[in-house]
Design goal:
Number of helices: 9
Radius of gyration: 23 Å
Number of strands: 19
Helix content: 25-40%
Order of helices and strands: HHEEEEEHEHEEEEHEEEHEEHEHEEEH
Strand order of the largest sheet: 1-2-6-3-7-17
CATH superfamily of the largest domain: Zn peptidases
Distance between the termini: 26 Å
Shape: elongated
CATH class of the largest domain: Alpha Beta
Structural class: alpha+beta
Strand content: 25-35%
Largest sheet: 6 strands, mixed
Number of domains: 2
CATH architecture of the largest domain: 3-Layer(aba) Sandwich
């Protein structure tokens, strides 16, 4: 099985499936489809030209799958030599090695082996837009009625079971002042100084992290004004914010921000749900046990600061986690996945799927 995993991983990694090359997104899907002959394959695509597929046994999609294995086959851009998977010292190097084409290859192969023999319905969901939000892949499929009792996305977790991740708010805060000549400040009102009060509110309520902590954060991405001259009191100011909120703040974050920025004009551009599945969930416990059988050590339940497509399922009250092999360097020039862990990942998923009732 090791060689099959490596061969398919390299086939997927050889495709430069970045969002700016829509033909490559389709090409990587076609590579996957060649390994799924004999299964029903539903294809999804909208006007944004980011394809995804859903594979399952039988001719009719079940109303709800028991398990969905989810993998994204898109990657961020890389150097040309990163699109050839290279084996060295027990590791597979290249773009998509850990994020997450190798895990996707494992999911394809385990689905292919077990989907027709399991006593319950299982789906394989392959998408090409997770790196830019997952709206045209996972979210589109959910809107088309695809659902499951439990979803596993093979994102890099080094065998930790990631049941919580932060939600996202992207927003603009705008202040208005009164323009005046810079030599006559008392005749104007600086929009920038008004924005200073907003910044102080952020620093007070959400201090900048100096070490890893599980709490809501606010990143001030930019502060700008349309004023380009020295001798003018600016009458407008814009602050762009990236807020990452913990699931515990889900119900209150928008109201809290609105109150904190009283007096400013607010524009909420994105409000994305967090990822949250109970750590005592039956499937989480089963996945912990399966990892223990294969590796000798049951998985820890972990939290992550970055989001994944699991949030789209959680947003419609369906459970799921990210769970993947060992590796490092995602989005970097030194991305790798541990080859032994890919074999273990296969065996863990097999143990998990075959032991479910």
């Amino acid at each position: 099985m090791k060689q099959q995993i490596l061969d398919l991983s390299k086939q997927l990694m050889a495709v430069e499936s970045i969002d700016s090359k829509k033909d490559k997104l389709q090409e990587v899907i076609e590579v996957a489809k060649k390994h799924l002959e004999g299964f029903t394959i539903e294809e999804f695509i909208n006007e944004n030209k980011r394809p995804s597929i859903l594979a399952y046994a039988g001719t009719t999609r079940p109303e709800k799958f028991k398990i969905i294995l989810n993998a994204h086959l898109d990657v961020v851009s890389g150097n040309p030599d990163q699109y050839a998977g290279v084996e060295k010292d027990g590791k597979l190097y290249g773009r998509g090695a850990i994020d997450m084409k190798a895990a996707g290859a494992v999911e394809i192969l385990i689905f292919k082996e077990l989907a027709k023999t399991l006593p319950y319905p299982i789906g394989l969901q392959l998408v090409t837009d997770e790196e830019i939000g997952g709206y045209d892949g996972t979210q589109l499929q959910i809107k088309k009625g695809v659902g499951a009792d439990f979803v596993i996305a093979g994102e890099p977790t080094s065998f930790g079971i990631n049941n919580k991740a932060k939600g996202i708010v992207w927003m603009n805060v705008k202040t208005k002042g009164i323009a005046a000549h810079g030599a006559y400040q008392w005749k104007g009102e600086s929009a920038i100084l008004k924005m200073r009060d907003m910044v102080e509110s952020i620093v007070k309520e959400y201090p900048v992290l100096t070490k890893e902590e599980w709490r809501t954060t606010v990143n001030i991405a930019t502060i700008e004004t349309t004023n380009t001259t020295y001798n003018k009191v600016p009458d407008n100011c814009l602050m762009k914010l990236d807020i990452r909120f913990i699931p515990e703040d889900w119900d209150t974050i928008k109201d809290k921000l609105t109150k904190m920025f009283t007096g400013a004009e607010l524009e909420f551009l994105e409000v994305e749900p967090p990822q949250i599945t109970d750590e005592n969930n039956t499937y989480v416990k089963a996945l912990q046990a399966a990892t223990g059988v294969v590796t000798g050590t049951p998985s820890d339940v972990i939290v992550k600061h970055g989001g994944s497509d699991i949030r789209h399922f959680n947003g419609v009250k369906q459970d799921g986690v990210t769970f993947g092999p060992i590796g490092e360097g995602l989005h970097s020039d030194n991305e790798w996945v541990d080859i032994k862990s890919l074999e273990q990942y296969y065996e863990i998923l097999k143990e998990f799927l075959t032991k479910l009732k």
